Amino acid sequence: MRRVFRRRKEKPRPRVPAGVSIYAIGDIHGRVDLLERMLSRIDVDLASHPARSGIRVFLGDYIDRGPASRQVIDRLATRDRSCRSVFLKGNHELYLTQFLSNPAILGDWQHYGGLETLMSYGITPSINADAATQAQLAAALDRALPGSHRRFIGMLKSSFTCGDFFFVHAGVRPGVPLTKQSEQDLLWIRQDFLLYEEDFSKIIVHGHTPVMEPEVRPNRINIDTGAYATGQLTCLVLEGDKVDFI
């Protein structure tokens, strides 16, 4: 009796909707120079494909570490409207908002680039600030923050979904549906997420954990290439089932 071997059906490649191009930008960390260059490259790419509908997705961590946090927020808050933009929240933006109501957090924030952010707003911080000085610095930042910056930070999203891709700052908790993820995990998770090799139901596009070059894995794509230190800001381009970088 002849055996009939059935060819295993290949799993469809993840894709975004037809006619849409996603430009996902990794952690900027105060490098407005790299941001300006990347926005220009995206504009050139979009202009060469006028039939596309472009969506820029920024993965958070706009501030800290680099020298121009205020200028980055300025640029993004007053962005042009030629391309739809989605702005996600990073854990560094959380530090800034918490500092305004809890100045004592400066003791932690300064280890992650908070002092550079204060200086970008024209504030001269003290490395070993006591409680009174911390309160003064928080009050100074509160006065220095333009309304446009407050609105920008206040409207940041925790995640964004398009097609078969889920965009987030840090990652997701394995075993928890994407619609049920906690903001704590979305902004902070590392090893439990990074070491997980099974399916998340969508491809997770994330930053938060710096790598020397973009990581493209079966279940996730990491595009945080440590821009503030390496000078390399990464942009992932998704069109149909194609994955590319510019």
Widest beta sheet: strand line-up? 3-2-1-9-10
State the low-pLDDT regions, or none: none
Subunit organisation of the chains: single chain
| Helical amount | 25-40%
Q: Mean pLDDT, as a whole number? A: 94
Largest sheet: 5 strands, mixed
CATH architecture: 4-Layer Sandwich
Number of helices: 10
Rough outline: globular
Return the domain count: 1
CATH level 1 class label: Alpha Beta
Q: Strand share of the residues?
A: 15-25%
Give the terminus-to-terminus CA distance.
56 Å
Description:
The protein has 246 residues and is of the alpha/beta class. It has one domain: Purple Acid Phosphatase, chain A, domain 2. It has ten helices and ten strands. The strands form two sheets. A five-stranded mixed sheet has the order 3-2-1-9-10, with helices on one face. Strand 4 and strand 5 form a beta hairpin. The longest helix has 16 residues. It starts with 19 loop residues before the first strand and ends with a strand. 36% of the residues are buried. The mean pLDDT is 94.
Which keywords apply here?
alpha/beta; 34% helix; Purple Acid Phosphatase, chain A, domain 2; 10 helices; 10 strands; globular; five-stranded mixed sheet; 246 residues; single chain
Brief overview, please?
With 246 residues, the chain is of the alpha/beta class. The protein contains ten helices and ten strands.
Task: Outline the fold blueprint.
Layout (H helix, E strand, L loop, with lengths): L19 E6 L6 H16 L5 E6 L10 H9 L6 E4 L3 H11 L4 H4 L4 H7 L10 H14 L2 H8 L4 E4 L2 E4 L14 H6 L2 H4 L8 E4 L8 E2 L3 E3 L4 H4 L4 E5 L2 E4 L1
Parallel strand pairs: 1-2, 2-3, 5-6, 6-8
Antiparallel strand pairs: 1-9, 4-5, 7-8, 9-10
Helix pairs in contact: 2-7
